[in-house]
């Protein structure tokens, strides 16, 4: 399985971006999907995750009410809609596949850079 993230870029504070992560293979719908981010000099953090059938989502406190994760299992794709972006959201964003309840993420995408200017 390979994960290909896209959609990053430069946006002004208050703006929006939509990240996408496309998966190869036939196992997409059998795993949970997550979005992580890593800012310069900081540890990687979990931003949001969604259960394999899309029945449950969870968000970091820092993005609640601004970000929304969704998935389309027919397209093997997970999305992260980011609204109300802040400079502190600047980071490389990674998608990952695994088991959210176990905190185990076994497959990672290559990352896409999001830069929010003030």
Rg for CA atoms: 13 Å
Instruction: State the helical fraction.
Output: under 10%
Biggest beta sheet summary: 7 strands, mixed
H/E element order: EEEEEEEEEEE
Secondary structure: number of strands: 11
Q: What is the terminal separation in angstroms?
A: 37 Å
Q: Helices and strands: which structural class?
A: mainly beta
Principal-axis shape equals: globular
Question: Number of helix segments?
Answer: 0
Structural write-up:
The chain is mainly beta and 118 residues long. The protein contains no helices and eleven strands. The strands form two sheets. Strands 2, 4, 5, 6, 9, 10 and 11 form a seven-stranded mixed β-sheet that branches. It is globular and about 40 Å long. The mean pLDDT is 97.
List keywords for this structure.
mainly beta; 7-stranded mixed β-sheet; 11 strands; 53% strand; globular
